[in-house]
Design goal:
Pfam families: P34-Arc. The chain is built from 11 helices and 14 strands. It is of the alpha+beta class.
């Protein structure tokens, strides 16, 4: 069971390589896209090799999400609090991007450990920006301060034209995810996964983890949400977050885990689909090998230990000539028996794949997700 890392590995490696070669004038121009349609662009010019420009393009927000100047509310304050004077926000950003940051590499702290921690934080710019609204609400929950949007539905973007919803209250925050998938197989796998995911929460040792519910219909918390936001073909998942889940360092883990829950489900659905396909291919290969072993030999006649020759008959010939005096090779009956068993095994295998599918047993490992939020 894999939990996605909050930082971009490629971005972090690029920053580390640039720090280790600051004395060299190197020109960089990298573009790449990560999950949920988050796009990055890095530029370093030869004229000013100590300055790195990092541009970020966020998923297209739906109508219900609150954005200010192309960014979620609270994003500017979160960037300033996380990076300080090392990073400067350029206004306006580069064309086609929501945010452009100017990083002065010469202002990085000299202490290697602190510098590495800061670079990891810069590589986590996705979490800082997209998780800013969620962080503001959960911080108020941790300090038990009444949020200004108390009992009001708050939409937070997490995928292109899709959002999940928060209902802030004094003692808890309810988080609801409408789960949507485009592929019909993904819908079936995701539905089974989410049902097993809810069951895993009831396991002993996870009593302090956030409560989790799944329902095929919209929960009461989504009353008043836009009709487009309620079009979920894999049901709705609800988490209830209490102050104990956002105390101290738990806040960062909770913000990231909630922000990427849909990506977490999608990742393991695709892994399970690949696992199922691998099992099916191996099973079909074993059935084909059994059929190959059941093929009759090319020789038309054989001699027994008593030097008597006989002709090998096919299955149809054995049936039509059952009353004849011609000796029938016992191997024919063996071949028919093998073919029958192979056919029966294949039918059972297909029925098993169309049922609960053996690969879903791996979803019980979803306990790790709850432990991360515990």
């Amino acid at each position: 069971m894999i939990l996605l890392q909050s930082h971009s590995r490629f971005l972090l490696q690029t920053l580390l390589n640039r720090v280790h070669s600051l004395d060299k004038a190197v020109e960089l121009d990298y573009n790449w896209v990560e999950f949920d349609d988050v796009r990055f662009h890095i530029q370093v010019s030869l004229k000013n090799s100590h300055v790195l420009l990092l541009s970020v393009s966020l998923p297209s927000p739906p109508a219900e999400a609150i954005f200010f100047n192309g960014l979620p509310f609270g994003a500017i304050e979160a960037i300033k609090a996380a990076y300080g004077v090392v990073v400067q926000i350029l206004d306006p950003p580069k064309d086609g991007f929501n945010l452009t940051l100017k990083l002065n590499m010469s202002k990085l702290p000299p202490d290697e450990e602190y510098r590495h921690a800061l670079l990891v934080k810069i590589a986590s710019v996705r979490e800082v920006v997209l998780g800013a609204p969620l962080r503001v609400i959960l911080k108020k929950l941790g300090s038990r301060v009444v949020a200004p949007n108390k009992d009001r539905l708050v939409a937070i973007v997490h995928r292109p034209n899709e959002s999940f919803f928060l209902v802030p209250q004094v003692e808890k925050v309810t988080v609801v995810y409408p789960m949507r998938f485009t592929d019909s197989i993904d819908i079936v796998l995701a539905t089974s996964f989410l049902q097993e995911f809810v069951e895993a929460r009831r396991t002993a040792g996870l009593n302090s983890a956030p409560s989790c519910l799944w329902s095929p219909s919209p929960p009461p918390e989504l009353e008043g949400a836009p009709a487009e936001a309620l079009l979920a073909n894999a049901g709705f998942v609800t988490f209830v977050i209490f102050p104990r889940h956002v105390e101290g360092k738990k806040l960062d883990h909770t913000v990231w885990s909630l922000s990427t829950f849909h990506a977490y489900v999608s990742y393991h659905v695709k892994c399970s689909e690949g696992f199922m396909h691998t099992r099916m291919r191996r099973r079909v290969e074993s059935l084909i090998q059994a059929l190959d072993r059941a093929k009759p030999n090319v020789e038309n006649s054989k001699k027994t230990a008593q030097s008597r020759s006989f002709k090998r008959l096919s299955l149809n010939e054995a049936r039509t000539n059952s009353k004849s005096e011609a000796p029938v090779d016992s191997c024919v009956e063996f071949d028919a028996h093998v073919i029958y068993n192979v056919r029966l095994s294949f039918q059972r295998f297909i029925r098993g794949c169309n049922g609960r599918m053996e690969c879903l047993f791996q979803f019980i490992l979803s306990k790790q997700y709850y432990v991360e939020l515990d």
